[in-house]
Amino acid sequence: MLKAQETILEINLKSLKHNFEYIKSKLDGTTKFLAVVKAFAYGSDAVEVAKSLQELDVDYLAVAYVSEGVVLRDAGITKPIIVLHPQAVNFATLIDRCLEPSIYNAKVLNEFIKIASLKQQTNYPIHIKFNTGLNRLGFWESDINFIVDILKNTNSVNVISIFSHLVASEDINEREFTLAQIKTFESIVKNFITTIGYKPWIHICNTSGIFNYPEAHFDMVRCGIGLYGFGNSEKEHKTLLPIATLKTIISQIHIVEKGETVGYNRAFKSDGDIKTATLPIGHADGIGRQYGNGKGFVIIHSKRAPIVGNVCMDMIMVDITNIECKEGDEVIVFGDSLSSNARDFAKSAQTISYEIITAISQRIKRVISK
Ligand SMILES: *Cc1c(COP(=O)(O)O)cnc(C)c1O
Predict the structure, then answer these.
(1) Are 50 and 72 in contact (CB under 8 A)?
(2) Index of the ligand 1 atom closest to the CA of residue 210
């Protein structure tokens, strides 16, 4: 591993390959693998991750917005890309860049058909999303006749897949709800196929769905967080490898005497003589203020150093009273070992791995390790 000389996010593409192959081993040979690379590939590096997955012959990619798909196309990614949450204002660009929209309501369906036909498209690939309980995006089962009527009146678009999204696939306590969701989806699928007269691919599983509901893999699975190294059980935590390591260095060491304070608003008051290290990473880099005041911690020479006082925009101060270290030494904020994991770091501030890894700002240099 590279020794940090400034704050960096190191992305390990070998770990990505390991995660991809492990998750793929959970699928049968016919199920397609869609890799979700939205939000900078969950805060890592969308282009490098997508290139790597393309080399591994992933079947599909997905992003949330059109602009994210454009970046991938500009970087030479040729795999099909679903845009999960496109806005009508970007439909022309979406078509120009051969991106495939998720269509979730009548307005979007009509607007997309209008632009596709204006651009003289025939059979442009689209994906129809159904709501089965998340109540976020998607048509209802009762919309099927109406959707199919519209589709039968145009040759501009072609439905490649119909899909839905699980609400709580990671939560064993919600197993009954998830099974009901899958059942609802199966009923929608059956009804849709009968009405439209052909069978698009069907998919519903995200990462936790892949692990917990093998009976619902259907034609394709949509995997995000698992590729980046996080699952939903101890077994998976031990097998999957977090691909990102957030490293920084000690800029300066301070001796803080009893009664002195550290940081803005004097949020920390020392009740003894302590030693602190100032690190070049702050809330503008994605370490939110909720990690301050003893909640979050970093790892210095394998020891935990809690954050002291409030998180500043560009810096944090950590308590190193009991750690042998010097200015310039490397600091791990989170990484791929069980002792410095984004899951634990996130938990320290009552949040989840998804949030902390996607929060790491673009200001931090990405370093790719192949
Ligand atoms: C983000 C997203 C996924 C990926 O979910 P993970 O839990 O990260 O695997 C799958 N499907 C949809 C619709 C999403 O928005």
Answers:
(1) yes
(2) 9
Is there a contact between 319 and 306 (Cβ–Cβ < 8 Å)? yes
> Does residue 42 have an active-site annotation?
no
Close Cβ partners of 167 (under 8 Å, ≥ 6 residues apart) = 133, 134, 174, 177, 178, 181
Task: Note the pTM of the prediction, 2 decimals.
Answer: 0.97
Domain-wise residue ranges, the chain: 31-228, 244-369
* Fold entry, domain 244-369: Lyase, Ornithine Decarboxylase; Chain A, domain 1 (2.40.37)
- What are 247-287's pLDDT values in tens digits? 999 999 999 999 999 999 999 999 999 999 999 999 999 99
Task: Return the residue whose CA atom lies nearest to atom 15 of ligand 1.
Answer: 84
pLDDT tens for each residue of 208-251: 999 999 999 999 999 999 999 999 888 888 899 999 999 999 99
Fold for 31-228, please state it: TIM Barrel (3.20.20)
Q: What's the 224 CA to ligand 1 centre distance in angstroms?
A: 6
